[in-house]
Design a protein that fits this description.
The protein is an alpha/beta fold and 187 residues long. It has a single domain, classed as Nucleotidyltransferase, domain 5 (2-Layer Sandwich). The protein is 41% helix and 20% strand. A 6-stranded mixed beta sheet has the order 4-3-2-1-5-6. It is globular and about 50 Å long. Keywords: Membrane, Transmembrane, Transmembrane helix. GO terms for molecular function: nucleic acid binding. InterPro entries: RNaseH-like_sf, RNaseH_sf.
Length: 187
């Protein structure tokens, strides 16, 4: 296969970009056979015109380690997203954005790429892991949650709410799902 799966996770201070800020981004470039070719991470300064959503701020108050991690070594959104776009374009294969849920993470990543880097190397598309699991397991979308997914899909990786940690864990999950799906197709 010639694609690289860019497992991506973002941490934010609210539900949508613009009124709220992306605090950090982490991506891991996976081959289909679960090899990580490269990673990217950045902690971003908040948007000057934005503010934290009260519910999100209350949740962050329960996550002091993750909060501290995403507030150190801050970069401007222009610097971070320009660096991110360059990293994506430097990868040796066609890239596919992958997230759980893509509907949340992709909105922030696409908005920030367009606004601060002037382009999105992902174009307009994202692969949603929950939708992929729904199709593979032949279950209703609302019945697909991580607690209802097969245990053998999960590697022993931490979910820390630190963007790169979570991107790596979700990428391994995706590769395990992809391997099983492709194996089932050959049976």
């Amino acid at each position: 296969m010639t694609e690289l799966y860019i497992s991506t996770d973002v941490e934010t201070d609210g539900p949508i970009p613009g009124p709220h800020s992306m605090l950090s981004i982490g991506s891991a470039a996976y081959t289909a056979d679960k090899k990580i070719l490269s990673t990217f991470s950045a902690n971003l300064e908040t948007l000057p015109e934005a503010c934290a959503h009260p519910k999100t701020a209350a949740w962050w108050a329960t996550q002091p380690d993750a909060w501290a991690a995403c507030r150190k070594d801050l970069e401007s959104p222009v610097a971070a997203m320009t660096r991110y776009a360059a990293w994506l374009k430097s990868l040796p294969r066609r890239i596919v954005f992958v997230a759980y849920p893509a509907g949340f993470d992709f909105v922030f990543v696409y908005w920030y790429l367009i606004r601060f880097a002037g382009e999105s190397p992902f174009s307009f598309s994202a692969l949603d892991m929950k939708s992929f699991a729904m199709a593979h397991l032949r279950k209703d979308y609302r019945d697909i949650t991580k607690t209802n997914m097969p245990r053998h899909w999960f590697d022993e990786l931490p979910h820390t709410h630190i963007a790169l940690d979570d991107a790596i864990g979700q990428g391994a999950l995706f590769c395990n799902m992809l391997r099983e799906n492709r194996s089932a197709g050959r049976s």
